[in-house]
Design brief:
This protein has 3 domains: 113 residues, GAF domain (Beta-Lactamase, 2-Layer Sandwich); 73 residues, Helix Hairpins (Orthogonal Bundle); 151 residues, Histidine kinase-like ATPase, C-terminal domain (Heat Shock Protein 90), CATH 3.30.565.10. It is 44% helix and 22% strand. It is built from 7 helices and 13 strands. Strands 3-2-1-6-5-4 form a 6-stranded antiparallel beta sheet, with helices on both faces. A hairpin with a 7-residue loop joins strand 10 and strand 11. It is elongated.
Length: 388
């Protein structure tokens, strides 16, 4: 309205939005001059049906009305100073494409205050308002869509969290329920082998041995599933963790299990991160033991632990073992997803899923690169670690 005041001068002005569908006006701004002062009287004007004058503006376009300051026109509803009507009035439609979406009016108590040139200028101002309204409506629509998207994402996240908790509870329950009968199967099979082996032929002994081995494998699988469910639900105690110290402890432990293996460990010193020490220890344990396992058939194995350089540094565990085909890189972090035969490299296919779950809980991510018979590298990022 400051622009209108500078262009024309006015005693009263109105700005209404118009709904073509409902054929109703809704008040945006009503100003009037009362006792020499401009007063916002918008709260008194809650919107209404279009007056006869407003209908002409909607149907025919901008209107200039000059009349003696004697009485209010028929059908008009006075606002503000109800003791005197405006003598000079200009109305301009605010359009979006071919539709009228609002009415802008400038009024004066002085007779012959405006002319046709002023009306053209007011229409230009109304057209400018139309562009501003369109931008505001577009911004409001973007805000509405963003709010709707956030709401849906929130609902979806809540649903996924509930589903994950149910799956974890199911996994935990099933694992516990399977344990007792599984150990009974293994126990009875071992007793049969021990006590009745002389009475069995080679084929029967082989069946019982396979049964024991399968039960042992299943027992390990249950242990891994239980660990996976625990890392998903365990409380996190965030602190500074020296990953290099953890890696060195793992290397020493693995060397004790097979002192004759010529494995070279290259562990960068004093690499620290912020996170839960127990969970990060489990993740690193899985990665280092994987590297140890998949280099077991090499005469000279090498396992590295370090960090990358660049804008987004990450930790890595690298080995020169059997590697994998990178076409399957997206699969290896899934539960029970294995790229090598159990007869070549025993395992349950849960370890890397556990690593991913732990790193995700820390707000980081994990990924891998490799090539067949040329080794593999597993990377993981942790927020804030580079700021320690």
């Amino acid at each position: 309205m400051a622009a209108a005041d500078e262009l024309f001068g006015w005693d009263a002005c109105t700005f209404d939005l118009y709904s073509p569908a409902e054929r109703k006006l809704s008040t945006v701004l009503y100003m009037d001059t009362i006792k020499g002062k401009r007063v916002d009287v918008s709260p008194q004007c809650k919107g209404t049906d279009p007056s006869p004058q407003t209908r002409q503006v909607i149907e025919r376009g901008a209107q200039l009305v000059l009349r003696p300051a004697a009485e209010f026109a028929d059908g008009s509803k006075p606002f503000g100073d109800k003791s005197r009507p405006s003598a000079s009035l200009m109305f301009a439609p605010i359009r979006q494409d071919s539709n009228v979406i609002g009415i802008l009016s400038i009024q004066s108590y002085k007779p012959d205050a405006y002319n046709e040139d002023d009306l053209v200028t007011l229409q230009a101002l109304a057209d400018h308002c139309a562009g501003a309204l369109e931008r505001i409506r577009a911004e409001q629509e973007v805000l509405r869509l963003n709010a709707e998207l956030e709401r849906r994402v929130g609902e979806r996240t809540t649903q996924l969290e509930a589903i994950n908790k149910e799956l974890e509870a199911f996994c935990y329950s099933v694992s516990h329920d399977l344990r007792a009968p599984l150990r009974s199967i293994r126990g009875f099979s071992e007793v049969l082998l021990e006590r009745y082996s002389p009475q069995l032929d080679d084929r029967a002994r082989e069946f019982l041995q396979r049964s024991c081995q399968s039960a042992l494998h299943m027992d390990r699988l249950i242990d891994d599933l239980l660990q996976l469910s625990r890392v998903s639900s365990a409380d996190m105690q965030r602190q500074t963790v020296n990953l290099s110290t953890l890696a060195q402890g793992l290397a020493a432990e693995l060397r004790k299990t097979d002192p004759s293996r010529p494995v070279e460990f290259a562990i960068a010193s004093d690499l620290q991160a912020k996170g839960d020490e127990r969970l990060l220890g489990i993740a690193l344990d899985n990665l280092v033991r994987n590297a140890w396992k998949f280099t077991s058939k090499l005469p000279h194995a090498k396992i590295e632990f370090g960090t990358t350089n660049g804008a987004q540094p990450a930790f890595f565990v690298r080995d020169n073992g059997v590697g994998f085909n990178e076409r399957y890189a997206g699969r290896i972090f899934g539960v029970f997803q294995r790229l090598h035969a159990d007869s070549d490299f025993p395992g349950t296919g849960v370890g890397l899923a556990t690593v991913q779950r732990i790193i995700n809980r820390h707000g980081g991510r994990v990924w891998a690169t490799g090539a067949v018979n040329k080794g593999a590298t597993f990377y993981f990022s942790l927020p804030e670690w580079e700021n320690i």
